[in-house]
Amino acid sequence: APLEPPIGIAVTMHGVRKVKSSAQIEAERRKERLIKADKYRGLVKQVLALKSKGDKSDAALQVCEIAVSKNPDLYTAWNYRREILTSRFADPACPTAKIQEGCEAELKLLEACVRANPKSYSVWNHRQWVTHTSPMPDWRRELGLCDKFLDLDSRNFHCWDYRRYVVRRASVLDRDELEFTRAKIDQNFSNYSAWHYRSTLLPRVHPALDRPGHNAAGERVLCDEFELVQAACFTEPDDQSAWLYHRWLLGRSLQPLALCLVGQLPRGAALA
Amino acid sequence: MTTPMDAPLPTVTHTELFLEKHAKYLHWFEGAVDELEYCITEHLRVSGVYWTLTAMDLLGELESMDRERIIKFVQGCQHECGGFGGSTSHDPHLLYTLSAVQVLCLYDAVEAVDVEAIVRFVCGLQQEDGSFHGDTFVNEQDTRFTFCAFACLSLLGRLDAVDVQGGVAFVVRCRNFDGGFGCVPGSESHAGQIFCCVGALAIAGAMHHVDVDALGWWLCERQLRSGGLNGRPEKLPDVCYSWWVLSALAIMDRLHWVDGPALQGFILNAQDEETGGIADRPGDVVDPFHTLFGVAGLSLLGWPGLAPVNPIYCLPQRTVERVFSRQAAGAGVGAGAGAGAGTGAGETPAAVPCIPPPASSVGTGSSAPGAGAII
Fold first, then answer.
1. Interface pTM (ipTM) of the complex?
2. A158 near A110, Cβ under 8 Å?
3. Interface of B with A in 16-45 (CB under 8 A)
4. What is the least distance, in Å, from the CA of B115 to any CA of chain A?
5. A252 touching B, CB under 8 A?
6. What is the pTM of this model?
7. pLDDT, tens only, B122-163
8. pLDDT in tens, B315-329
9. What are the pLDDT digits (tens) for B174-211?
10. What is d(CA B313, CA B151) in angstroms, rounded to the nearest whole number?
11. Within a 10 A sphere around the Cβ of A19, how many other Cβ atoms?
12. CB A130, CB A107: distance < 8 Å
């Protein structure tokens, strides 16, 4: 069965323009909303009732699915879903293939949920739970999903955080991720999220940056970064990303003071 | 060359705060149990109650709310494990546990629930790396939860029950190149997370981990031409960031680094004169969440007629003072008064700053290191 459409922006409370229309249209819209509200309320009651009875049937999973499709922030429904799946997966009679199948089904549900609400904590958390639980997670696909969602919204921090989780689990090289940030920055200099990620990767890929004193390797890396930042500042002078990153780079190029000599003058003496 | 993202010019501007209309709106919302906006937010109802009550108290209207009914509702949200769900029968979570404690503090009714169980619940969520999970159902760590844990326990006088230094260490690992903080180590700086981290560090008496000048600058750079504040670079301004950015600046004693009058203008324009209530930005639909943070932001800016608000707990200052002086008076029950390193049981924690007097809080942007400073 196709997924129920989500109730949508009403939950997020952000970016909802106040639109005034005729009294008649207002009345119609209000009636529609009251019906939706009543349906949703009934759905939540169902989820909570089944959960309190400890129902672990397919029907319970189905009710949860409809509920989270309407409102992905209904965290209790996600908890309930995990509870049911965990008990099924823990059954010694449950073959690995079945667990894998179950996880794949979850990922499908999640893809639809995340398209409807790409900023729901619950949705990304559940995805992390699924890939953690799955016997054979497809990290390449997960990375691809992150690529796709970052193309849609390059500032989605849920997606960036999920990407870093995938990168860790899949042992993706820092060097490759550094390249990825470069690609994102080249696409759009205003990508603060990419600059930020770069700030964490750069010192890991180039440990020379952290070695005290003059070192050619560290200097070269910094010069390359300064060039990148300059290009960004010229192209988008009003965007603060490059300026903030620039300030951080300046801080990195400070040479620590080296104490050469410490002495004490006798009391009353003065330097000539 | 793109123009910076900002809210469109408002079609209607306001210069007054419609206090009575906002109180009326909040009353209306509370009773609008059949409305879609009400039903769809059932899972966070306890937080909704906290937003509404705090706003009402700042507006001087707390008396008009039904204290007994609300306390009963909050009691009904506590589970055996000690944690509170977002509403009756919803699973326990740290977010709603904090909101529940905040509501009970407002009503001076903390003894209406099982405090020991709350302490056990919160402690049980701390991980080996010092971070806190939000609940026992999913492995989600987030600095929001560190704040929830510290705020909750310090309000109950039981901060000593967790590993504060461990919690601090996790927060420090979430500190970024720009002086800001994110959800987990490696996460981008975000005003909401920054409020949580700065608040947590303040409660723990560990503000030395904050580069107040660097972060103060990043925070005041959230202000746009419209006067509103965004949560991170190249995002739209939003009234809720008026709280998270402002309160963090207040804790860091740099509230005067934003243009107060411009921000006030933005918040006032986000009011809906027709229905009452405040929205995320001018022209949008109002809701209790933004109504609280708009009112709280104005209070921090010294708007006359509003009760002073505490920037760490987002509760009226008088509530916070009552809670901590009560703890000091009832000292000796093995509880520290909340600030990190072993303050005597008789002290109000240094981490609970007083509201700066209005003159210094409504400053102009000229005293801040302007964006041009680094060129």
1. 0.89
2. no
3. 34-44
4. 23
5. no
6. 0.90
7. 999 999 999 999 999 999 999 999 999 999 999 999 999 999
8. 999 999 999 999 999
9. 999 999 999 999 999 999 999 999 999 999 999 999 99
10. 7
11. 10
12. yes
Q: Cβ separation of B234 and A155 shorter than 8 Å?
A: yes
**A253 interaction partners in chain B (CB closer than 8 Å):** none
Distance from CA of A19 to the nearest CA of B (A): 8
A94 touches chain B (CB under 8 A): no
State the smallest CA–CA distance between residue B165 and chain A in angstroms.
24
Report chain A residues whose CB lies below 8 A from the CB of B182: 157
pLDDT, tens digit, 9 for 90 and up, residues A148-189 = 999 999 999 999 999 999 999 999 999 999 999 999 999 998
> Got the DSSP string for B22-80?
HHHHHHHHHH-TTSHHHHTTGGGHHHHHHHHHHHHHHTT-GGGS-HHHHHHHHHTTB-T
pLDDT-derived band at A237, boundaries 50, 70, 90:
confident
| Residue B156 amino acid letter | L
Asked if B235 lies within 8 A of A236 by C-beta distance, the reply is no
Which residues in chain B are contacts of A197 at CB distance < 8 A? Answer: 186, 188
Q: Which residues pair with B279 in a beta bridge?
A: B286
Asked if A47 contacts A76 with a C-beta cutoff of 8 angstroms, the reply is yes
B11 part of contact set with chain A, CB < 8 Å = no
Tokens of B314: 């987002």
Give the number of beta-carbon pairs within 8 Å between A and B.
Answer: 155
Assigned token pair, A165:
């989780």
Does A3 lie at the interface with B, CB-CB under 8 angstroms?
no
Q: Which of B187, B279, B283 sits opposite A161 (nearest CB)?
A: B187
What's the CA dihedral at B43, B110, B341, B197 to 10 degrees?
Answer: 20
Residue A271 has a pLDDT of 67
> Measured between CB atoms, does B256 come within 8 Å of chain A?
no
Residue found under tokens 């009773």: B31
Q: Which two tokens stand for residue B321?
A: 């003072």
Give the gap in angstroms from C-alpha B196 to the nearest C-alpha of chain A.
17
- Decide: B103 and B157 in contact? Cβ < 8 Å: no
Helices (H), chain B: 19-31, 36-39, 45-58, 67-75, 94-106, 115-124, 143-155, 164-173, 191-203, 212-220, 239-251, 260-269, 288-300, 317-329, 358-361
Chain A residues close to B40, C-beta within 8 Å: 7, 10-11, 37, 40, 71
Which position has the higher pLDDT, B354 or B308?
B308
Q: Which of B93, B91, B118 is nearest to A83 (CA)?
A: B91
